[in-house]
Amino acid sequence: MRNRAFILISLAAMLAAAAATPAIADDVIADDLTRDTPIAARAGVLAWSHYDAAAQRYRLVLKRETGGRVLAPIAGSRTPFDVSLGRNRRGRLVALYTRCQTARGKRCDVYRYDVGSGAEQKLNSVSGPAEDEAWPVQEGDLLAFARRRPFGLSKNAEIRDCDLIFVKRLSSRAPSKRLDRGACSRTTGISIRGTRIVQVTFGSPPGTRFASQVRLLSARGGAVKVLARQSSGEESNLFASPSQSASSIWLTRTGVHPTHAFVRIDIASRRLTEVPARIGLSGSFARDALSGAIYYVETPERFAQDCSEAASAPCRLTRATPSPFSTRERTLAPVMSITSSANAGKAIFGDPFVVSGRLTRTVVSRGRVLRAAPVAGAVVRLLRRVEDPAAVGSLKEGFQPTLLLAVTDAAGNWSIPIATPPARPWFSAVTEGAPERTFAGRGTVGSVEARITLTFAGGVFAGSVTPAQPGRTVTIQRLRGRLRYTKTGGGHVYVDQWTTVADAPLAGAGTSYAAAFAAPPPGIYTAVLPFGDPKSDPEGYGGRSPQIMIPG
């Protein structure tokens, strides 16, 4: 009995110690990724691409676990480096990637960079003069890569890319060996371990509209083995960025509809284990087999598809230990919410207007959310969203810092009152200093309407507009009736139908108007100030006055 009691006491003590163990926080390595980038990790070294907007080139970035990040002393690239890290025949750590002569990813050849010496060389033995290579990986004497084939149209008019996988023994004069192609598809990542090659694809093989597959190949040859597949609409349910351990394949699953997740596939059993990421993932992922640390690129919004410069905020490159598949508690990087008085409905100029939000860190265990830990004492700066009317196609968004600051309270909450909110109160926010720089994503929506009054007396419509809108015209409108629209699936929608009966230019100061109308018909009237054109008048307010009744 005493032995049993001792065991129970010891077990209770161990459970208590485990419960008291603090969660391990994910580390943000870089918070300035404005473009998508592949990432690679090996032997304590991390590699990715940084986009230089001024030069319009990507630079290869390297970072060791114990040091800061440095730019590799090589020329920039028009396209992101499809970088991998491997060992050459001498066991030296090398980075493999392709360089393309066009921004569209054409005329691409394989290059290798020695991480220790800083020397770069073109690998002519695997670079076809009339071919496009992609995703090169090396393991000792063996190098594998994809060779692009021009895409065509299938019978159902879907795009079908037919990349081919090749392997080359660098010590041999024999040409590169072509492996089994499998279904037509575009390669989105390759990994090599020994003679085992993993290829991740996206394409439209027969029988499905679109599909993403995880394929297993051998450098010795043989048929492709599909370990996992998922089919869905365009840009949905994508596997990406394979890494390998002795027995497993590690990668991500992203897309429009699914829950973004980390994925592990047991090679022997083909069992797929999926852990929800609880954050937005771009798909870029790497695992360092030496330390077991994983690296991922987090998008600023949960369902954002990429890190393009038009996105609301830059992506973050983050390191996680332990892995998402561990039962140890992990604290994710901070996230910040944001809302405003205009988000909940119509906001009228002059009413109290507040932008507010909350800064928290989510604690998870194996993808299960345990709690949200508030971040107190963080300085938050408000950012205002602006648009560039000169942008081609849709308006190009950007953010400008304001002078408005707040500090999060004990619950992680912050708020900033704005005395004179703009007509389009589109704001985001960012933390300054500790903790890691955190953006509030795309930010607030909605509008602030001008405060407009309307009266009728002595044959004159008159009223006021706040704030001043000099040079603009108020229209007086009469309700003619209601239009009825049928909804899909039953029911109706009624829409007020108004007709303009008079125009009333605003007086010189832009705060008052009047329009004579000797005998208006009985009915319901309102004064309307259209919103300004965002291209020609981005600061123009709009709005509608309360309705008045003119009796018969």
Radius of gyration: 30 Å
Provide the CATH top-level class of the domain at 450-550. Answer: Mainly Beta
CATH topology of the domain at 450-550: Immunoglobulin-like
The profile of the biggest β sheet is:
7 strands, mixed
Shape designation = elongated
Question: What would CATH call the architecture of the domain at 450-550?
Answer: Sandwich
Number of strands: 47
Q: How far apart are the termini?
A: 97 Å
Structural class by helix and strand composition: mainly beta
User: Mean pLDDT, nearest integer?
Assistant: 87
Helix content percent band: under 10%
Assess the beta-strand content as a share of residues.
over 45%
Contiguous uncertain segments of 5+ residues? 10-19, 153-157, 391-395
Tally of helical runs: 1
Describe the secondary structure blueprint for this structure.
Elements: H1 2-20, E1 24-25, E2 27-33, E3 39-42, E4 45-52, E5 57-64, E6 69-71, E7 84-87, E8 93-100, E9 108-114, E10 120-122, E11 132-139, E12 142-148, E13 152-153, E14 159-160, E15 164-169, E16 177-178, E17 186-193, E18 196-203, E19 211-218, E20 225-231, E21 238-244, E22 248-254, E23 261-266, E24 272-276, E25 280-287, E26 294-299, E27 315-320, E28 330-331, E29 335-336, E30 339-340, E31 347-348, E32 354-365, E33 368-374, E34 379-388, E35 396-407, E36 413-417, E37 427-432, E38 448-449, E39 451-452, E40 455-457, E41 460-466, E42 473-486, E43 492-505, E44 512-516, E45 523-529, E46 543-544, E47 548-550
Parallel strand pairs: 1-28, 31-38
Antiparallel strand pairs: 2-27, 3-4, 4-5, 5-6, 7-8, 8-9, 9-10, 11-12, 12-15, 13-14, 15-16, 17-18, 18-19, 19-20, 21-22, 22-23, 23-24, 25-26, 26-27, 28-32, 29-32, 30-32, 32-33, 32-36, 34-35, 34-37, 39-41, 40-41, 41-44, 42-43, 42-45, 45-46, 45-47
